[in-house]
Amino acid sequence: MRIAMIGTGYVGLVSGTCFSDFGHDVVCVDKDIGKITRLLAGEVPIFEPGLEALLAKNVGAGRLTFTTGLAEAVDGADAVFIAVGTPTRRGDGHADLTYVMDAAAEIGRALTGYTVVVTKSTVPVGTNRKVAEAIRAANPQAKFDVASNPEFLREGAAIDDFMHPDRVVVGVESAKAQKVMAELYRPLSLREFPMVYTGLESAEMIKYAANAFLATKITFINEVAALCERVGADVKAVAKGIGMDGRIGDKFLHAGPGYGGSCFPKDTKALARIGQEHASPMQIVEAVIKVNDEVKRRMIDKIVDLCDGSLRDKTIAVLGVTFKPNTDDMRDAPSLTIIPALVGAGARVRVTDPQGKHEGEALLPGVKWVENPYQAATGADLLVMLTEWNEFRGLDLAKLARKMATPHLADLRNVYDRDEVAAAGFVRHVGVGR
């Protein structure tokens, strides 16, 4: 089948590349000339394990191409995916649909035959009907159906998530559109991955509800961690004990400095706003947003305590700034709250991250970037584990301690065992919920 993917951000580029690997002919479209130029040259503008090789494979096979021309990509396509950004709108917390609606109107003007227009972007309930209205307004004669096909891709594991999904959610309202969507995902249904067909509003809500639930799970264990610190319990043991219950599950029960990234912060805010607009407040979600902000501030307090109440003229080494490992994404990362607070309090901050420097340099002024943890630790008063990259899980702790002026560790991801840290020569050590 022929697919046009509008938007070559994280979702669009991964989805387009994976669809081409299914055997479909995919054209990825973006108005950013620089981005398309890089893609045509074989350069991938985002870091995602395995994406560069998969992209090169399908470009070489002639199934995947890139262009700035939307009309030529849409002409003759069986399906057109809208995969543009929906950032949080300034002032009210709602999802900004400017890019989605602009794309819908432009798609409408370019349609020449029956096409299924699929919203891949995360959008508030009711948006797909607005997309249909925008297409009809731009082209009253257009023959099309709209479909909602939310993504559930984890950064750092996106290709595996696309190829081996827990489920594929498709919101449609006609048998013809469902047939097209079934054909697009035929390689997955042949391998018996679940296909969930539902209405437009339900598909839109599934995406928001899923992300809000996962954000709630993270925030819950972070609140439990704070209580564990007061009563002498170990949150890792608590998480293991409750996670073995099949009704709860062990995923997203890792205490830390709060959630971040491209999805959870904006989607929880958008869902809270949707609830307010429909006079059905999402009180749990609103509490999650509030508590997550408090968690980040609590991490700052831990760091200050380890520095005897003052950060002025202290040298702090920070390991990891991206919101999670295996991505270069800095959006709403805890580091963007924690590190500026350290700098503002007079600390000298050294940072190392396997992929974070490209984005982080502009977002974290006043810090010094170094190549590895040992450089960061040299002469430091405190070492802070902020993102649990694999490269940081097997460090020579004794070597780190010897290099430091005062061997103190704030392990905000609970990577290391307390006894192991003490045996390596660290004088003071704090984790989260322990």
Contiguous low-pLDDT stretches (5 residues minimum) are none
Oligomerization: single chain
CATH architecture of the largest domain: 3-Layer(aba) Sandwich
**CATH first level of the largest domain:** Alpha Beta
Mean pLDDT: 96
Task: Describe the model.
The chain is built from 18 helices and 14 strands. The chain has 434 residues and is α/β, with parallel strands linked by helices. It has 2 domains: 2-198, NAD(P)-binding Rossmann-like Domain (Rossmann fold, 3-Layer(aba) Sandwich), CATH 3.40.50.720; 208-434, Rossmann fold (3-Layer(aba) Sandwich). The protein has a 6-stranded parallel sheet with strand order 3-2-1-4-5-6, sandwiched between helices. Strands 11-10-9-12-13-14 form a 6-stranded parallel sheet. It has a two-stranded parallel ribbon with strand order 7-8. The longest helix is centred in the middle third of the chain and has 32 residues, at 200-231.
